[in-house]
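Render this sequence as a predicted structure.
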Amino acid sequence: MWKRDEAVKPTSGPVAPTGSAVASQFGGSPSASHPEPRQHGREVVNIGKSVVIKGELSGSEDLTIEGQVEGKIELKENVLTIGPNGKIKAQVFAKALIVQGEVNGNVTATEKVEIRDGGSVDGDIVAPRVAIADGAHFRGSVDMQRKATPQAGSPPRPAGAPAPAAQTQTPATQVAQPAAR
């Protein structure tokens, strides 16, 4: 027989149903007007239009800024999005940067920088990939550094292999020797 008390008690703490679970409970289907808040398990934090931050901003979540930030922004393992209303006067360090608003300051990204239509960057960019859309504004320099690669002419070492021994010669025996072929 069904007992009301057991049906009401959660078994392992409160669990909020997802959009599709709620829709199936009420006989509907999840609609596009209620998208899931998380994509692929990543948290996204928003800073609204009326928020002004002066100082250092750092974190370990993806961040969207619609307000104003002056100072320094560090999200080295995360994506930073500057929304259309965002105005940034800061040094920026992020995994990826998407600019739809304004950025005044130098930008360093480990993956990519994307300046979209209507976006503006006044400052130097250091990133392995840079995309500037038609209609975007950019003034500064671009340094598209690649990730560390093995030295030219030397084969890559397998993981865990010891580094090659340095060849040492005394000054009296240093002679230019032709490379082995």
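Summary. Helices lie at 4-8, 19-25. Residues 39-134 form one domain.
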